[in-house]
Description:
Strand content: under 5%
Strand order of the largest sheet: 1-2
Number of domains: 1
CATH architecture: Orthogonal Bundle
Shape: globular
Radius of gyration: 13 Å
Amino acid sequence: MKKNSFTYRIIEAIRKIPAGRVATYGQIAMIAGNPRASRLVVWVLHTASEKENLPWHRVVNRNGKISLGRGSGCELQKRLLLEEGITFDTDGRIDFNKFLWEPID
C-alpha cells in the first residue's frame, strides 16, 4: 500500500486514537483528507482491522453510538471500550465531551 494513499492515511489516523478515547467515522475521514468519505472508513475497518491490528473498537458513529448490530460485534466493541474506561449513558451513547479524541496535529 502506498504511504500517500487515502486508505493508508485512514489506517494511520485510526492507529493514533489513544486508549480511553473514541473517534467518529467522519472525523477519521476528515483527518485522512476527505471529510465526505466516512463510508470508506467503514470499509477500511471491515477489511483491514485484523490485518493491520487496528484499534477498530475506538471508532463510533457521529451520535456516539456503536454502529455494529447485536451479534455482529456490538457486544465485543462495547466490552473493549468499557475495559478502557469509556462509559455509556442509558441510551448507549458515549459522552463526546469526555471521550472524543481531539488530535493535536
